[in-house]
Design a protein that fits this description.
The complex is a heterodimer of chains A (453) and B (110). Helix content of chain A is 17%, strand content 26%. Chain A has 453 residues and is of the alpha+beta class. In chain A, the strands form 6 sheets. In chain A, strands 12, 13, 14, 15, 16, 17, 18 and 24 form an 8-stranded antiparallel β-sheet that branches. A 4-stranded antiparallel β-sheet of chain A has the order 2-3-4-9, with no helix packed on it. Chain A has a 4-stranded antiparallel β-sheet with strand order 5-6-7-8, with no helix packed on it. In chain A, helix 3 packs across helix 7. The two termini of chain A are 25 Å apart. Chain B is mainly beta. Helices cover 11% and strands 37% of the residues of chain B. Chain B is built from 1 helix and 4 strands. The termini of chain B are far apart. Classes of the chains: A alpha+beta (453), B mainly beta (110). At the A-B interface, strand 2, strand 13 and helix 8 of A face strand 1, strand 3 and helix 1 of B.
Chain lengths: 453, 110
């Protein structure tokens, strides 16, 4: 539960807002690398933290993120020609390089040096993990590159997608860190019955619908665990996660997977989804075709037949995020099952098979999170014990806003998150999960001597 | 931290009113106030280290209304108690639908 002012504080992300200033202290995903695959390929238009931007890869392969409006008369640069080291506005031919400098102005007399005085906003980029990241904050505060462990995995062991979610970023984050909803939203009817009895997490979900949630604050955000009593087995199933401020999550699946919930503006979010296998696949791991659920699901294709979106991630992501089937890359990465068609809910399926009747785990997430409104009214919530991670995240974000306002560095800008992984395990009831899993979830060289913040 | 006396206890144990106890083990954080025809109540969260598991915290919620203190395990339950005590009717307000949304915020270069 938040006050109206607190809710406004956490959900408004445009330039000059307190939360916008906080978010501009981090590297933000701008586009997937394949969206600007080749030098001089077509530019891409995006909205990020309330700003209209254009992304393009220049002749030398360098990616630029620049303001979307031409400095001349505000025409949109999306229509521009990407050629010979810059993006040229098609209205009057003004051309800008990846740093936003005007490098050609053919509509003015040749002797004019007007172009030397003209530039449009630009932001630095860093490309890693199949993602073009950009930094929109103060130049002297630029953090270390976003080298999450998952970005270091070879493309053939990495799946990537992104999808436009039509609501404020905070409800997408809160949906992701709310581990308990999976029992219900993603479950069968009654809750839990569809989970696989051969899989420990499935058995735990079937037995335990009110897990304990434990949060351990860290110097990058927090690590947390959903602890499910496995009933007659006499053990606990523990699924440990990381939240890396402000918008990133790592969670245990067959390998690891997670999301980055990045605000486009106050009422729209671009959700980046990733899944990786850290270790070399076992012999039984398919080189093509369907990937077993234990490995995270999805599909692997040979590079020769791979569509463009496999260029930087050759494993396909399922769960309601498959390009062409669930998400339309040609329509701003909008979900094909969306609120305009009621997510193609099937009431018969809902009655007989699944809790929602909506196909796709992440489609179910989008449906329910978007149903909370463009910006959820948190003054009217009634939070329970399982909302502990959400309460912690809000508090940490509010504290980080304050830290930035006072001139300090917020959590998650130092590269202390580089080695983080998520893990799940079945543990004896008397074993403390944080001690048992610490070596597995925290691969930072210095981590094992450190204590949480 | 004390044992939860139940959500409708007439008055809980007295505690310090500072934000942090002397040994720093328990923190009190103001969440928000509630107001209605029967007066005003304040909702606080108490969080302290779990003695058995030092990285973890133990939490409970306190409502202060007039001279009484009321405790609950969840923020939501404490908020309901505060509303009931004060007559704050925030949870009974009609839902006013949001204005029809346009898709003008889509990344459409027009």
């Amino acid at each position: 539960m938040l006050t109206k002012d607190q809710n406004e504080l956490l959900t408004r992300v445009g330039p000059g807002t307190p939360m916008g200033n906080l978010m501009r202290r981090y590297w933000a995903p701008a586009v997937l690398s394949w969206e600007v695959a080749e030098p001089d390929s077509p530019p891409v238009t995006i909205k990020l933290l309330g700003e209209e931007l254009v992304v393009f890869r220049d002749t030398n392969g360098k990616v630029g993120v620049i303001g979307a409006r031409c400095a001349h008369r505000r025409a949109h640069m999306f229509w521009g020609r990407n050629e010979e080291g810059g993006l040229r506005c098609v209205y009057h031919g003004w051309k800008f390089d990846v740093d936003g400098k005007c490098v050609d102005m053919p509509s003015e007399p040749a002797k004019s040096n007007f172009k030397d005085r003209v530039r449009i906003p630009s932001y630095p980029t860093h490309e890693v993990g199949g993602v073009v990241w950009t930094y929109m904050g103060p130049p002297d505060k630029q953090p270390a590159p976003p080298l999450f462990a998952w970005t270091q995995v070879a493309p053939e062991r990495r799946a990537m997608s992104k999808v436009w979610e039509e609501c404020n970023w905070l409800q997408t984050l809160e949906g992701g860190i709310d581990t308990v909803h999976s029992n219900f939203l993603h479950g069968g009817r009654p809750p839990g019955v569809r989970y696989d009895e051969n899989d420990p997490r499935g058995r735990a979900n079937n037995v335990s619908t009110a897990p304990e949630l434990e949060v351990v604050p860290t110097d990058y955000g927090y690590t947390y665990a959903g602890i499910r009593d496995m009933g007659e087995e006499g053990t606990n199933h523990v699924r440990a996660y990381h939240w890396i401020m402000p918008w990133s999550q790592i969670r245990a699946t067959g390998g690891n997977s997670g999301h980055l919930w990045v605000p486009m503006d106050d009422e729209n979010t671009m959700v980046y989804n990733w899944s990786v296998h850290f270790e070399e696949p076992q012999a039984s791991y398919p080189r093509r075709g369907a990937v077993p659920e234990a490995y995270g699901g999805g599909r692997v294709v040979d590079s020769e037949e791979a569509p463009v979106w496999f260029k930087d991630a050759r494993m396909e992501l399922a769960g309601g995020n498959r390009f062409g089937q669930d998400v339309d890359p040609e329509s701003g990465f909008r979900s094909l099952r969306n609120r305009d068609n009621r997510y193609l809910i099937d009431r018969y399926t809902q009655k007989m098979q699944t809790f929602t009747g909506i196909t796709g785990t992440n489609t179910q997430d989008r449906a329910i999170q978007e149903s909370m409104g463009p910006i959820a009214d948190r003054t009217l919530e009634r939070l329970g014990t399982t909302d502990r991670a959400i309460i912690h995240a809000r508090r940490a974000l509010m504290q980080a806003v304050k830290t930035v306002q006072q001139g300090g560095d917020p959590p998650g800008v130092a590269p202390t998150f580089y080695g983080l992984r998520a893990y799940e395990a079945v543990l004896p009831k008397d074993q403390y999960w944080y001690d048992a899993l610490h070596d597995k979830i925290d691969k930072r060289p210095e981590a094992h001597a450190s204590t949480p913040a | 931290m004390g044992v939860d006396p139940g959500p409708r206890a007439s008055a809980g144990p007295t505690r310090g009113t500072g934000d942090v106890t002397e040994d720093g083990a328990i923190e009190r954080q103001f969440i928000q106030h509630f107001e209605g025809p029967a007066g005003r109540a304040e909702l606080y969260e108490w969080a302290g280290a779990d003695p058995d598991r030092p990285h973890l915290e133990k939490v409970e919620y306190e409502v202060i209304y007039q001279r009484g203190r009321y405790y609950a395990q969840t923020m939501g339950e404490a908020a309901i108690i505060a509303c009931e005590l004060t007559g704050d009717n925030r949870f009974l307000q009609p839902i006013i639908p949001s204005p029809a949304r346009t898709r003008s915020s889509s990344p459409d270069p027009r």
